[in-house]
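Tutorial handout. Part one gives the primary structure; part two gives the three-dimensional structure as tokens.
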Amino acid sequence: MYTGVPLASAKSQIFEAVLGFLPDWVQITVLALVVLAVVASWVVKVRRRIARRRTSRAGQALPGAAQYGQGAGAGHPGPYVPSPSPSPSSGERGADFLGPYAPAQRQESGADFLGSYAPSQQRGNPPA
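Part two.
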């Protein structure tokens, strides 16, 4: 009697459909690798749990665990805290402040600089 509700998830149905096109020896190999991956993850989990119990019984700190007052979690930047630098005055901050990358004083040279050949500004006689 079919009730219209699939008994397996969509992922498992896709997995079975893909394996159905493969030869038997490949199907067995893939299934063995999946089982091996699951068993390996269980072994790693058990080893970590045993190590955690041993360190807690010995009174030692867990490797990689945060110490008291050290901070942890998303709100704690850890080693990525920016180093404190000498704060510039309030006028020397933000996107417009170039700091050491600011260009040197304006140099009087180049194609736009006329130097002594620049026309003198005389009031009263507009240039013709």
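Part three, for discussion. The chain has a mean pLDDT of 76. Residues 65 and 125 are 83 Å apart (CA to CA).
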